[in-house]
Design goal:
This protein has about 300 residues and is α/β, with parallel strands linked by helices. It has a single domain (about 5-230, about 260-295), classed as 3-Layer(aba) Sandwich (Stationary-phase Survival Protein Sure Homolog, Chain: A). The chain contains eight helices and eleven strands. It has helices at about 5-15, 50-60, 105-115, 135-140, 145-155, 170-195, 265-270, 285-295, and strands spanning about 40-45, 65-70, 90-95, 100, 125-130, 160-165, 205-210, 225-230, 235-245, 250-255, 275-280. The strands form two sheets. The chain has a nine-stranded mixed β-sheet with strand order 3-4-2-1-5-6-7-11-8, sandwiched between helices. Strands 9-10 form a two-stranded antiparallel sheet.
Amino acid sequence: MRRTRVLPLAALLLCTPALTGTASVGAAPGAGDAPRPLRILLTNDDGYAAPGLRMLFQRLTAAGHEVTVVAPLTDQSGAGTRLTSGGTVRVEHPEPRVWAVDGTPGDSVSFGLAAVFRDRAPDLVVSGTNFGPNVAALATHSGTVGGAIAALERGVPAIAVSTGELAVPVPQQILNAMRPTNDFTVKLIDRLRARAGNGRLLPAGVGLNVNHPVVGADGRGTARGAAVTSQDPQPVLAATYTDAGDGTWKVGVALAPAPNRRGGDAEAVTADRVSIAPISPDWNTDTADATRIALLVAGLRP
């Protein structure tokens, strides 16, 4: 993913201490009225009834935003950026402001933008809060991040939000840590809204992958700050395959610890800091990598 916009975005997000402390975020300098509430499409990959999504729905609504859930009918963890093409999709409308799509997070966002928000796109798509982290290679395969990517592809600002650390999860710790995660998410959105005025919340083609750590024995602790990061390339998980002798193989998975890359998302979360990683809806590398590849293939002809 491109990282050319990291420094400008870092200046946008972290030039004052409001995101790293407990102070509320004020309006942009010189602003008169308070920023207007946002129209938010809320999705995830754990399913529309998952506690992380429901908690964030309540928190964003309490902050005054107009929130509509368009999320998968069932758990779609690990679905990545997969989209359904052709055929039919079943959609349920179980309660006001809630739509449940029998598909991936990408399908949910696609349906939401094309049908639920067909008259006017939302100001923001938020995907989460996910149960568990989406840092390093986990982000590449994450349905939570995939939902944000689907929005970015269609020109809508998007934020993916996850809670967890690179360790065997303790469910109650993560559930407890979702509350400070959601508080931080509201602060972040307030900051973007105040700085945007009547414009876009984020630069065109740039989204955010936010990962909040689990702090303290019960998970209720406050993070030690926030950092704009890049995606660590480490795989995080290693798969094992055992031949069952009948043409099938049993698949296992285990944590595969590796040194954290300096300035990466895994390093930030491990240090009890919130990671804010800019993401883009394409897989372009930076100009230096493109130059290296051009040298490698120079003169090559079909």
